[in-house]
Amino acid sequence: MKRPADLAAGPDLVADMFAHAPVLFALLSGPEHLLTGANDAFFEAIGVGRDRRLLGRPIVEVVPELVHQGLTGLVDGVYRDGAPFVAHTAEVLLGPTGKSRLRYFDFSLEPRLDQTGQIQGVVFVAVDVTRQRAAHKMAAEQQVLLEQIARDAPLAEVLDGMCRAIEKISPKVLSSVLLLDPSGQRLVHGAAPSLPDFYNEAIDGSPIGPVEGSCGTAAYRREMVVVDDIATDPLWASYLDLAKRAGLAACWSSPIISSSGELLGTFAMYHRTPQLLREDDLDLSIVFTRTAALAIERHRAEQARRRAHESEQALSSDLAFVLETSTAVSEEAHYPQNLQRLARLAVPALGPVCVIDVLEGGRIRRVAVAVAPNLPERVEALLAAEEPGRLGASPVGRVLAGGAGETVTSAPPGPWQELGLPITAQVCVPLTARGHTFGVLSLAATADRPLDDRTIALAEELARTAAAGAETTRQHDQRARLARDLQAGLLLAALPEVPGAQLAASYRPAGEGLDIGGDFYDVFPLPGDWWGLVIGDVCGRGAYAATTTALVRNTARAVAPLLATPSAVAEAINDALLARADGGESFVTLIYAELRRTRDGIAVSMVRAGHPPPLLRRADGTVSSPSPAGQLLGVSSDPELVLEVFTVDDGDSLVLVTDGILEARDPAGTFFGEERLAEALRATAGVTDAQQILDAVTDAVDAFTGGFTDDDQAALVLVARQLR
């Protein structure tokens, strides 16, 4: 018989779990740190693609740039000393010199031990937090600029602050803003705090044309112009000496376009060495070009206010509407409910009817309809049932396909013409985030509410402002679904058919379910018509809890057929937990039982390791706890475990729960507790359906807590039901 430690789940099982997870995962072996396994996210991060030939090579050959950054020394230390290493927001340069990319990671290095406790290698797990870090910094700096804009700070101050904010976020960047002069033919100085004065003076008043550096060409083309090497690009032929004198080697420039499509100027980002356009810099360019557009437009509006007070009042009102509506939409934490709120807020402020369609899985789906309160109820019902059409075959489809707004100067076909309303036009504006159009906001116009330029501009600005929040929420929901899917992978897809018994189980994650929980259960066959049953709770949440859960489940399944008693199985699981280098944090509570049908019911042999006690509800409604307490696993090499043997008679039920049920709280903070659980079970006297008993438990918990839980909840019900 194999020793229990030999049967612990191996690293390949752990690697398989991370194969498609949104984290970087790699297994390194031996003192040379040979790359013996990695997931797709790891290969994508180092920029080499999924090349199997890299496996088996030292990590210093696979990612040589790690050497001079001291990261291989950290791996050496973990392999040498056996102590885990954890870092947060660590800077890492990936890629060869001159083409390297600065990324930020939360990562851990943990020693991987064999059954004898000897270090075999190192496990690397990391999360790329570059975008989150940049997004936080960008949002903070943008908020300051928006506050300046909102309080009518001078345009020069806003643009100068914008350039300094960009250079603070990306220290290697030099930024500038050029403004369109009144003639519309030249660009004049707006802001460039870090460029030399002689350079700013030389390009002040530079012409717009097809070969006028990055900025003049971007203004001419009305599109972003990327020059990654000024010295070799023909666009810079007339400015090459000036650029050399200023020490500038790369420049990409974006036109600043108003909400009405007018050219306002250009925004440029310079580098002192040749550079390829990076995604981070593209994000900066997109966000701050729009910020510059907002600042310039606000400045023009202020100038217009001096000429026409009434026009300024209308603009301020519109801006307030956009800000208030965008804030209200952003406060809705769920998708597509935030788009539904957007539609409701657009009516009647922008028009009597608003619908929102999104592209999901290649199909157009209507997610929101709002109509003015004075319109018939059938209007909303008709529009909600409308099929938006195929991609590219309708105004909505064309906007989704091309990303550009469209105005139809007649009543759209289909239900729109059946509404009995004097509809005169329809405008469809894209919902675009990070360059991807995922939805369309459509407004209808009637004879008494025509679509003027102001309404269209407001709709476009509202869509632009709300799109980022809606897309972020959608991705948040996708992450929650991913966490739930990963959790489902740790649970049984379906409970097996156990002879003489009926089973029912439930698992409910805490909060929004963004993290993988540590609660689990399992039922599996054993030799000799026996069945194994386990329910447990792993300390912590997330990827580490998932690996511990997999370790416990796989160890139980592996050793149970080979060991004589449930106590021996629990001890083998305990040995597997202690064999991990960080076993001090691998605490697990569980109940492990072995079941077999007998003439009288279900014979049960059970051990309880620090887990909440099971409850045995007899057919007459009496409730007892058949299992004495035991010590939780992962703490001591010799846990105190007591074997309990009993029978679940025909019509009796055995109920096992995790502490998330017993510790569920009402609004006053009172625990649900064992006695309330027992009361819920007594009320099921005579019930022989496992699902009904499970529903009675979960309903009682929900009634007590109001449906809110701050901890994962798992429950498993077994009812003895002998064949007649």
UniProtKB/TrEMBL annotation:
Gene3D superfamilies xrefs: 3.30.450.40, PAS domain, PPM-type phosphatase domain
Name this protein carries in UniProt: SpoIIE family protein phosphatase
Query: Keywords, A to Z?
Result: Hydrolase
Extract the PANTHER family matched here.
STAGE II SPORULATION PROTEIN E, STAGE II SPORULATION PROTEIN E-RELATED
Question: Which PROSITE patterns does the protein's record reference?
Answer: PAC
Q: Does the keyword Hydrolase apply?
A: yes
Q: The PAC domain covers which part of the protein? A: 88-141
The question of whether Lipid metabolism is a record keyword is answered with no
Checking Pfam families in the record gives: GAF_2 (PF13185), PAS_4 (PF08448), SpoIIE (PF07228)
